[in-house]
Amino acid sequence: MSDPIETVVNGARVIGMAFVVMLCTYLWVRKDLSAFEAKAWCFALGVAGGVWGVSLIALWHLVSAAS
């Protein structure tokens, strides 16, 4: 049986990645954005998602170290 906090972190990662993919797809098919702008938005969202994921992992380590 896995740790509940780890399950939450993994679930948040999956939801975050799905959100980024959907948003990138939306930006890609919009007609008022160039391909470069869509790629720049996707890169920025990917970086933000990575920072968010690392923050969740760090929080998980802090909580598990405290218990």
Distance between the termini: 18 Å
Please give the domain count: 1
Q: Which H/E pattern describes the elements?
A: HH
Helix fraction, binned, reads over 70%
Per DSSP, what share of the residues sits in E-state strands of 2 or more residues? under 5%
Spans of at least 5 consecutive residues with low confidence: none
Major sheet description:
none
In DSSP terms, counting alpha (H) and pi (I) runs of 4 or more, how many helices?
2
Give me the count of strands. 0
| Cα-based radius of gyration, to the nearest Å | 15 Å
Structural class by SSE content: mainly alpha
Shape: elongated
Overview features:
DUF2788 domain-containing protein; membrane; transmembrane helix; 67 residues; mainly alpha; single chain
Short description:
The chain is mainly α and 67 residues long. Helix content is 87%, strand content 0%. It is built from two helices and no strands.
What does this structure look like?
The chain has helices spanning 4-29, 35-66. The protein is mostly helical and 67 residues long. The longest helix is centred in the C-terminal third of the chain and has 32 residues, at 35-66. The two termini are 18 Å apart. 0% of the residues are buried. It comes from Chitinasiproducens palmae. Keywords: Membrane, Transmembrane, Transmembrane helix. The chain crosses the membrane at residues 12-29, 41-63. This is DUF2788 domain-containing protein.
